[in-house]
Design goal:
It contains eight helices and five strands, in the order αααβαβαβαβαβα. With 194 residues, it is α/β, with parallel strands linked by helices.
Length: 194
């Protein structure tokens, strides 16, 4: 009776045994390398989180004009919240550190256990916490995930071009409107809601 490795390699006897031993050794080497890679990945994530927790969270700058745009939106009667894929406690610390952070009713972010991490889930959580239906609500975002999350819930969306995503990404994702600068947001937001 042939062994499985003999059929695989078309060999029998001693040649098959050598091939099987090489296959096992190769598999063991790959498993050790994967384990080391996993350990290095876990260490890198741990070090990143430690650094972010100690001072990395303070290393942010608001885009010029965004504070004025937030003030104008609030003055016009809009309720604001932050919905982000960052861990919620990290995002909350950042928003609270901003000079206009007090204008946001809530900060909704990813859970560390991964239970809530994708934009549609995060938006659903925001709607739940704020006691809102998606109808008449707009999402303002700089990446396709923001726009796609809004579309998932049937919400209007405004794509901003000063963030990480560009015009092509946001248009392809289906943004209802695009803002080239923060001072355009109040008008576009009002247009997207109406």
């Amino acid at each position: 009776m042939r062994r499985p490795c003999a059929r695989k390699h078309g060999r029998t006897g001693a040649a098959a045994a050598r091939t099987a031993a090489l296959d096992r050794a190769d598999a063991a080497r790959k498993l050790r390398a994967a384990a080391q890679d996993q350990e290095r990945t876990e260490q890198a994530v741990r070090l990143y989180r430690e650094r972010f927790d100690s001072h990395g969270w303070t290393e942010h700058e608001a885009y010029p004009g965004i504070g004025d745009a937030v003030e104008a939106l609030v003055s016009a009667g809009h309720r604001l919240a932050v919905v982000t894929a960052k861990y919620e406690d990290h995002a909350r610390r950042i928003v609270e550190h901003l000079p206009f952070g007090h204008h946001f009713e809530d900060v909704i972010g990813a859970t560390e256990d991964g239970r809530i991490s994708h934009k549609p889930e995060l938006i659903a959580e925001a709607l739940r916490r704020l006691g809102l239906a998606a109808d008449g609500i707009s999402m303002i975002g700089d990446r396709r995930m923001d726009i796609e999350g809004a579309r998932h819930h049937g919400m209007a969306s405004v794509g901003v071009l000063w963030g990480f995503g560009g015009e092509a990404e946001l248009s392809t994702a289906g943004a209802d409107r695009l803002a080239r600068a923060p001072h355009e947001l109040p008008g576009l937001f009002a247009a997207a809601v109406s």
